[in-house]
Design a protein that fits this description.
Elements (H helix, E strand, L loop, with lengths): L16 E4 L10 H15 L4 E4 L9 H7 L3 E8 L5 E9 L2 E5 H5 L17 H12 L4 E5 L10 H6 L3 E3 L18 E3 L11 E6 L11 H5 L7 H22 L2 H6 L6 H12 L3 E4 H8 L2 H6 L3 E9 L8 H11 L3 E9 L3 H6 L4 E4 L7 H6 L1 H16 L2
Parallel strand pairs: 1-2, 1-11, 5-6, 6-9, 9-10, 11-12, 12-13
Antiparallel strand pairs: 3-4, 4-5, 7-8
Helix pairs in contact: 1-15
Protein name: Glycerate kinase
Enzyme class: transferase
Pfam family, one: Gly_kinase
């Protein structure tokens, strides 16, 4: 296989140590499984190569898994799922630092197959998960958001942490984004006092505002089963929610509605910014710090990154782009693996990726490609060894 520069084996013999820092292949393999298959393929073709893996995530699905692989302790609790039923959800803890992934409690994966609840799905369980981390002694929380089943602006999360969100008759509003249309009063004075002494980083790969054409309902609502009418209702309800919070906490609430990350995960980013005092940071940057990527990078001659689909979204805060940027800053060459490749060589090069290896080049049928992703990755890894290691 040719490298991006058109030469085979351009760095032959120069690579002694490989760092695998890939995200999950959604629907096929976890980040840990991706690393395992790549390692097997590399070692089959180049037995003497040193291989280290740091499975990565960008704040969405798989963030807790990545932290656990890096040595954090996984803790599982029962919380309220997006439909109101109890679900098991995990967070990761190391000392006083916790990694909390909202998808564990309020994600699409907690819904039965084919079931959506765009107007009523709640983030209440995410608030319970955050409270469990506080109870365990966390005073620094990386709050990964993505993969949500919800569009409630984090209202459920805030309620679980002590906020009072009331209708015109002084009763708690119902669950979900649709119920925000009934919100008349927001009282955040009852929020868990430990939050004021906890550093919370909102880790997300999206920078959408709360509402409008690029807001949470319009962009992500359809993925959660929202019809055009639902999107319009949710957008109006979230705008009303922001107005009520502005009356409760002041002008900052209106500014946060337009802030990067406010629209993340159905607007839970907004709830975290306004109610939890969170600070937004691109998820992959946060996770690379948490996972100990820098010292592993210092030991590497070549980095392999990747995810299920390398496309335009990859260039806007996804894990492979973050890994490539960090590696390029330290002069370490990067190649990528993916199921599907939709980026031209020029775009890859500008992102710091020398070459990308797509599984569909080996198995064009999408269903078979996903089903056989593991063995295909091992074949790709053997090709990378031939191009760069032997």
């Amino acid at each position: 296989m040719l490298s991006a520069s058109g030469r085979t084996g351009a760095t032959a013999g120069a690579v002694a140590s490989v760092l695998i820092a890939a995200d999950k292949f959604k629907g096929s393999l976890t980040a840990v499984q991706v690393a395992d298959h790549l390692t097997a393929g590399l070692r089959s073709a180049a037995p003497g190569v040193r291989v280290e893996s740091v499975p990565v995530a960008d704040g969405g699905d798989g963030t807790v898994d990545a932290a656990a692989e890096a040595g954090f302790e996984r803790r599982t609790v029962r919380v309220t799922g997006p439909l109101g039923d109890p679900v098991a959800a995990s967070y990761a803890l190391c000392g006083t630092t916790a990694v909390v992934e909202m998808a564990e409690a309020s994600g699409l994966r907690q819904l039965p197959a084919g079931v959506f609840a765009p107007l009523t799905a709640t983030t209440y369980g995410t608030g319970e998960l955050l409270r469990a981390a506080l109870d365990a002694g966390a005073r620094t929380i990386v709050f990964g958001v993505g993969g949500s089943a919800t569009t409630d602006g984090g209202a459920g999360m805030l309620a679980a942490l002590g906020a009072r969100l009331l209708d015109a008759r002084g009763r708690p509003i119902g669950p979900g984004g649709g119920a925000l249309r009934d919100l008349a009063e927001a009282d955040l004075s009852g929020l868990d006092k430990r939050l004021t002494h906890t550093a919370i980083t909102l880790a997300s790969d999206v920078d959408n505002p709360l509402t409008g054409p690029t807001g949470a309902p319009a962009v992500y609502g359809p993925q959660k089963g929202a019809s055009a009418a639902d999107v319009a209702a949710l957008d109006a309800a979230l705008a009303h929610y922001a107005d009520v919070l502005e009356r409760a906490v002041g002008p900052s609430a209106a500014a946060y509605a337009q802030a990067p990350g406010a629209g993340a995960a159905g607007g839970i980013g907004y709830g975290a910014l306004v109610g939890l005092g969170a600070h937004f940071r691109p998820g992959i940057e946060v996770m690379l710090d948490v996972l100990g990527f820098a010292p592993a990078l210092a030991r590497a001659d070549l980095v392999i990154t990747g995810e299920g689909s390398l496309d335009e979204q990859t260039l806007h805060g996804k894990a492979p782009a973050g890994v490539a940027a960090a590696a390029r800053a330290h002069g370490v060459e990067v190649v990528a693996v993916c199921g599907r490749l939709a980026l031209a060589p020029g775009a890859l090069g500008r992102a710091g990726i020398r070459h990308a290896y797509a599984l569909t080049a080996l198995e064009p049928d999408p269903a078979r490609c996903m089903a056989e992703a593991g063995p295909l990755l091992e074949r790709v890894a053997a090709q990378i060894a031939a191009d760069f290691l032997t």
